[in-house]
Amino acid sequence: MGNTDKRKRLDEEVFTYRITKNNTVFIEYQGKQVMVLKGKEAEKIINRIDQASTEKDVQLILAKVTGNFKRGNEKDTSPKK
Questions:
Q1: E strands, the chain, where?
Q2: What is the side-by-side strand order in the sheet with 25-29?
Q3: Strands 15-19 and 25-29
Q4: How far apart are CA 37 and CA 30, in angstroms?
Q5: What is the three-class DSSP state of 17?
Q6: Predicted confidence (pLDDT) per residue in 46-80, tens digit
Q7: pLDDT in tens, 11-39
């Protein structure tokens, strides 16, 4: 993987996924659903996950498929003290 995960975030296993009977893939980041894949795109990701040799490889696949959804400029909705 080389320099792909410089900050070692994927070691924490931040992504989870669930595959339904009809091959729909639900991807979550830290417990929150961020993406749903169906059809050919879901089949492609399922095949890549099945071929992954380690859990870190699976994390990298999920990180790549979700793309750049966290840019650092999200609003903080927690109550202010």
A1: 15-19, 25-29, 32-37
A2: 15-19, 25-29, 32-37
A3: antiparallel
A4: 18
A5: strand
A6: 999 999 999 988 988 998 898 866 555 555 556 66
A7: 677 889 999 999 999 999 889 999 999 99
